[in-house]
Amino acid sequence: MYSEFALPNDMDAYIRAIMGKEMTQSSVSLSKGEKLQWAQSLNLKRKASETDLILELWFKDNFSGNDFKGRMNLDLLKTNVFFENKSEHWLEIKNEEQKIVGKLFVNLEWKVISIKKRDN
Question: Which CATH code, of 3.30.70.370, 2.60.40.150, 2.40.50.180, 2.60.120.260, is assigned to 2-109?
C-alpha cells in the first residue's frame, strides 16, 4: 500500500482493514510525511455475502489513544478482483466530515482458500 497524505512528519500512521466481522491492521508506516508506505499484505477471510472492504487510516498515539483520521469503503463487486484475481486502485480516504484527507493505493488479490461441498 502506498499513500499520498498531507500529514505531520512525526505521526505514526497505520491502516485498519475490515470486511464483515473480520478486522486486521498494518504495522506503522515505513515512511513519514506526505508519502506513507506499507510493504505488507493484509489478509481477510470473506463470506460470499460480504462485498464491502473498509480501509481506515489511524495515527498511533501512546498517550491519549489512537486517532481516527479517515476511511473509505470499496464495493468489491465494482472491481475486477473476482474475475482476474487482482485489482489495483487509488482510493480517496475521507474524514468524518467527508473531506478528502488523502489517497491510498491498494493492490487487491483474491485467493480461494477452500470450497465446501453441500450435502444433498
Answer: 2.60.40.150
